[in-house]
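Discussion board: Methods & Data

I've been asked by a reviewer to show the raw model output for two of the constructs in my manuscript, not just the figures. I'm not sure how much to include, so I'm pasting the format here to get opinions. Each protein appears as its amino acid sequence followed by a line of discrete structure tokens. Is this the kind of thing reviewers expect to see in a supplement, or should I convert it first? Here is construct A:
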Amino acid sequence: MMNSNFWLLGIHRKLIATGTDTDGAYDFIAGHVPPGIRTPPHIHHQYAETEFVVEGELNIVTEQGTLHLKAGEGYTIPKGMPHALQALGDKPAKIITIFAPAGFAEVVKAVGIPGMVEEGMPAATTDMALFNTLSSAIGDETIKRPGAAFTLA
């Protein structure tokens, strides 16, 4: 893999293993989520997402409520479950994410902005039109009008 370090939607992602390495079984990605960064509410229709917190704290917000994860804790978001993620506190959340089956890493490679954590978040922003097109192609959906359950702190 030529470059495995990207920034996407404010989150640094280091691609550890992708579908190319795992025969399509899963993507294995290390993440660095700066304080206060949150994902837009979204749904993965084709794969499950497992989040494991290595350092810091992370909220996973679903229709059922908010799950607060601390270092050493994890949760699997089943495919089809609307959710959003948010780093909490004043320190970054360091996470390991597994997407199974693989697919999301290809979006990261195509749309992510190359860069290392130590360099900080780049000034350039994600090409949202391309991100939405590629995400839709792998079965992802950004929820345009999230309900009250998706109100993030």
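Construct B, same format:
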Amino acid sequence: MSDKLIRAERETIIIYNELDDAYIIDSSVQKHIRRFDKLGYECTDTQLYDDGTVCSKSYRVPVRAISFRNPEKRKVTEEQRQAARERFAKMRAEK
């Protein structure tokens, strides 16, 4: 590949293969590539730019390595916040 991808063109795609019971991850985001390499995921393909730098990588990842979580944060009432403030103030005073 000759031209480097611009930021808007970089992406990470996760595909689930039910037959193999594994995820295939294809990423051109360097932050994600470094993370997947560090986690030791099996790299199945590497695309390089003409200058030899990495353009994208594909990984085969076991199902247990990927989890989808609820992004909703815990809702705290004003009374709960006040009680927490008092507990922390008491802990700091006891030091």
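Answer (T.O., handling editor elsewhere):
This is acceptable in a supplement if you add a one-line summary per construct. For B, something like: The radius of gyration is 22 Å.
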